[in-house]
Structures are given as C-alpha cells and as structure tokens.
Design brief:
- The chain is of the alpha/beta class and 280 residues long.
- The protein has one domain.
- Helix content is 49%, strand content 8%.
- It is built from 9 helices and 6 strands.
- The strands form 2 sheets. Strands 1-2-6-5 form a 4-stranded mixed beta sheet.
- Strand 3 and strand 4 form a beta hairpin.
- The radius of gyration is 17 Å and the shape is globular.
- One of its GO terms (cellular component) is membrane.
- It comes from Alitibacter langaaensis DSM 22999.
C-alpha cells in the first residue's frame, strides 16, 4: 500500500505501555467473538470479558515478537488507514445529509478498560459501541501473518476497515436494532451476528473502493485483502482449531461469504448494496 507520507488520523488514543500486563496468554479467538461478548455485556451492564479465555475457538497464543520498528510502521499504517476511512464515510454521510461522528482508535498492549468491559488482545481487534472506539493490539498483525496466513499491510487495513464498519452500523442504528433482536430471539443470535459481520465486510469493501480510486493500493494489495477476508471465515477457523466445522455455531460467516461481501462493497463502492439483512 502507498500509505507512507499520507495524512494520518488524530483520533487515536495510544495506551501502549500504560495498560496492565503484557500480551495475555491462553486461547486466542476471532475478534468478532470478543465483540459479541462485549456487546451482550454492555446490554446488561456487566463485564463479561472474563468469558473470553473460556472459548473453544482457538487461533493460538504467543508473546509478541514485533520489533520497535515494526510497531512504529504498524502504528503509522493504522493511523493512515483510519484517516482514509474517516474521509470515505464523511463523504457518504454528508451526501445523505448526516454528520459522521468520527470513531477513536485505541492502541493497547495485552488488556485495557473499555466502556463494554475489559478489552483483551485475545479478542482480536474489536469495536465497543458504548464508547464508539475501535480497540487494536498491534500484535494482531503477527497473528494474521503467522497463524492465519494473512500477511501484508492491505490485510491489516482490511481488519481496521471492518471494525470501522461496525461503527458505521452503530451510527446508522443497525447495531442497536440487531442487538435488541438478539435479546428477543436468542435462537437467531448467531445468524444475526453473521449478517452483522458480513455487512461490516461489505462496508470494508466500500472503503477499499475509495482506497483504489485514491491510488492507495498497489499491485497485490487486493489479493492480500481477499486472503484476509477468507482467513477469518468461521469454517476455516473452526477447521484449524478443532478439525471439524459446526455451521450452527457460526458468528462470522464462511470464508466464501466474507470474501463475497467484501468484493460486493469493493466493486460497487455503494453502502446501500451491503444489505445483508434482506431476504435473498
């Protein structure tokens, strides 16, 4: 990606070095699972983050081996991508007579307090609707590269754009409506979560469309993003962690679904094409 030298977002809160402890051990899971637990916890006003380490969906665990130079590069990349998402969604909201409230990105190590409970790096990147902040431990880049086989700056950018997609859902009222439906119809909670995640993938694709127009992407970047979308599919994660797949437990969507919806947003550049909740 051609991100060096571009404008960076100032809506970043850097808590690295000030959080409690280092990178947490134990099982690693996809960010969406942590996001769902935080969402449920915030609904009831309790901290459910302690449930994270009891998950059976494991990506693995390790200590971060990022060098200072690598962290500095990822810090700059994250701030630049966040700024690009800000410009993308500001344009969309303004065209529709609305104001886009900018999210804050929190960079942290290991664990950090959030308005949705205690955030842990074991959750992966996540969005907290209560404080409208995206939480990111930069060592997730290492997880993507070494454990998920999704490497490259464009792959990491996709993850950030996906989490910002949850912020867009929150501002549009989609997130609170889905949360309410999940509480009313618990048997449909997983299916609704899949739709929510696929829409965030599509919104990430909308950002990708603008990034391509703004000459941010280089040859091979789209392939990196495509690979990242596929790498975090429920079927692939479950196959990796337990050797078999349980479709009824899906909360992300399959690799094919995630890639398809990301491409839909990428090709159309139109958020109205991201209605994963339509009967189709």
């Amino acid at each position: 990606m051609r991100w060096q030298g571009r404008e960076q977002s100032t809506n970043v809160e850097d808590r690295r070095g000030s959080t409690s402890g280092g990178r947490t051990g134990g099982k690693k899971i996809g960010g969406v699972f942590g996001f769902i637990i935080l969402l449920i916890g915030s609904y009831y006003g309790v901290d459910l983050s302690g449930l994270i380490n009891s998950s059976e969906t494991s990506i693995g665990s390790h200590s971060s081996n990022l060098t200072a130079q690598e962290e500095d590069q990822l810090n700059g990349l994250s701030r630049t991508v966040l700024r690009e998402t800000e410009k993308t969604w500001q344009r969309y909201f303004e065209r529709n007579g609305q104001h886009y409230q900018l999210p804050t990105m929190v960079l942290y190590n290991g664990a950090t307090p959030t308005a949705c409970g205690t955030g842990q790096s074991a959750m992966g990147p996540f969005y907290c609707p209560n404080d409208r902040k995206v939480y990111l431990d930069l060592s997730f880049y290492e997880d993507m590269r070494k454990q998920l086989g999704a490497s490259g700056d464009a792959a990491f950018a996709y993850v950030i754009a996906h989490e910002v997609g949850h912020h867009v859902q929150n501002l549009l009222g989609i997130l609170p409506r889905v949360t309410a439906e999940q509480q009313k119809h618990s048997s449909q909670a997983n299916a609704l979560s899949v739709k929510l995640e696929l829409q965030a993938d599509c919104f990430a694709g909308v950002w990708g469309n603008q990034a391509a127009q703004n000459n941010l992407l280089e040859t091979g970047d789209l392939e990196e993003a495509f690979n990242a979308a596929e790498a975090v599919g429920d079927d692939r994660l479950q196959k990796r962690s337990q050797g078999y797949v349980v479709p009824d437990s899906f909360t992300h969507g399959t690799s094919a679904q995630r890639l398809a919806w990301f491409k839909r947003g990428l090709q159309s550049g139109d958020p109205t094409q991201c209605n994963t909740f339509a009967n189709n």
